[in-house]
Amino acid sequence: MQKIIFFFFLLFISINSVHSQNKSLDVGDSIPSFSLKDQDDSMYHVKDEIGKKILVIYFYPKDESTVCTKEACGFRDNYAEFTKAGAQVIGINSGSVKSHKSFQSNHGLPFILLSDPGNKVLKLFGVKGKFIFTGRKTFVVGLDGKIVFTFESFTQGTEHSEKALEFIRQSAKS
Fold this sequence. Notes:
The protein is an alpha/beta fold. About 40% of the residues lie in helices and about 20% in strands.
């Protein structure tokens, strides 16, 4: 009985820690400055990229999980279109550099994967978790460093790339 109570106590704490994040950033907000290691163990500084390209930053829970793989492959399959539109795709989660390198290699991912130990950047963006998992949310960031579009769906991974690309195409027409 004590083991069951202890299990539910741990579950409660983990759920609360995932949900006790900052206010979620939204359209019009400037993104925070951050630096993280990429899949090649190189430091990526977002401040060096603002103003050069549209940034498509997506947060996902786990390398190699079913929905996360579908999401990453959606960005991969649309990568040429993102590049043509002047966008840089960046995936972020708490996985290790080694895990990201393996994920990239296994699925032919041509974009940047950043390792966010302790989900510090995820929390800066205020991405909300679901159950005991971190959240899944995509941000499109304009050249001025402000968020121009967001999309959030925990179960529809492939829609993240489709919705972001659709927004970027519509913006180019206006």
